[in-house]
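[Meeting: bench + compute handoff]

Bench side (C.D.) handed over the final construct sequence. Compute side (W.E.) agreed to return the predicted structure before the next meeting so the bench team could plan truncations. Sequence as handed over:
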Amino acid sequence: MTHPPRHEPASPRDLVGIGIGPCNLSLAALAHPLAELDAVFYEQRPGFHWHPGLLIDDATLQVPFLADLVTLADPTSPWSFLNYLRARQRLFPFYFAEHFHIRRAEYDAYCRWVARQLPGLRFSHQVDTVRWDAAREVFEVDFTRLDAEGQAESLGRTRARNLVLGIGTAPHVPEPLRPLAAAPGVPVLHAADYLTHRDDLLAAGHVTVVGSGQSGAEVFLDLLRHRPQGREGLHWIGRTPAFAPMEYSKLGLEHFTPDHTRYFHALAEPVRDRLVPAQWQLHKGVDAGTLAAIHDELYRRTLHGGWPDAVLTPGVHVRTAGRLGTGQVELHLEHHDQGTRTRLATDAVVLATGYRQRPLDGVLAGLTPHLRRDSAGRPLIDDAFRLVLDPAVTGAVHVQNAELHTHGVGTPDLGLTAWRSARILNSLAGKEQYPLPTRTAFTTFGLEQAASVPGTRQKAESPITLGAPVGGSVRPR
């Protein structure tokens, strides 16, 4: 059903959000009780859905349920996961289930519950361009309303004093496999589409899973559990030197605290660039429980003699790939340590090769002359998650889950989502709408890290009066 377009207000909005994933959904939930903040969020999809292709049975989040949209910034919020359970009359079952890590499908259902009720969310709205209007000191945001089939229905424009980008990530396909993944009818797909093609994969004679992170492990385990014993026909390969468990010690987890985020942001750019890949096991390893489940399933299949027809090989990358005349795919593999090469014929390939941040340059093309960049051409982002812009642009552009290069491995982590949203709202208001802790870790991450006093509050950002033009961009230090 087509809904009549909403009329945009004559006066500029305080905030326009672009993209509605968990990050901007969190921001919208925490912004909801702030009556003085006029905010709207646009998303081109027809509704909220979080990684639907990977909502595999029994797959759980890798963070506790407290890492919902709001709790770590405001435990009293009506948009908490616990209040979702209460509204669904499921609090007591959850209490007795004792699930500290909830199923991924349940997190998706919770987020959709929030999205259905929050005002200010505009689905089926595709943002086309963003410009800075220097005369009015506002951003102009042009968008297209989409119909139920995703086709253009009408055009619109709104104005805003501030923006927040939460455009998320896109599935990453390694260069050697892009032609095959893009070709119609070729059984090479990203894990983001796994459940859509699951029946076809289970019917295939041989399946290869590429990628040694959590998604690869979950896809491999699901295929293994549902393929016949002795005829599993599975390969699992990855570039990492081992199918390694994710770092989940309590002190290790302190890398996902505001303390570490502030420490990382203050480091020199070359140091940050060196640290991010070195810390891969903090966020790209596999949950130890998933690794144990894979081993248990493999072991179970040896009880009556023989070994399962499953090959697990780390330290391998795909050099090239092509089609065989039989309809199969041929992968040309190289082992890092041995320096050896081989070919693998397979009937289907699942690429659990992760996601990459969507570039900001597309939606911000109109602001390109105003963007300040680092030596690698990436946008500079200050400690309040604002793009560093030319001082002539007096509005603020905040970003969410686009600051890995400036804020570190906690960037995509759901556990920091509510804190970052509260930080952004405090920055916009110029006052402490949400009191945030000054210390969050027992670890002191640097010798020169400023000591914080427990129980004190953060200093407010430079004030931005809602309902009036903002002033002063942040310059790179």
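W.E. noted at the follow-up: Residues 450-477 have pLDDT under 50 and may be disordered. C.D. will use this when planning the next construct.
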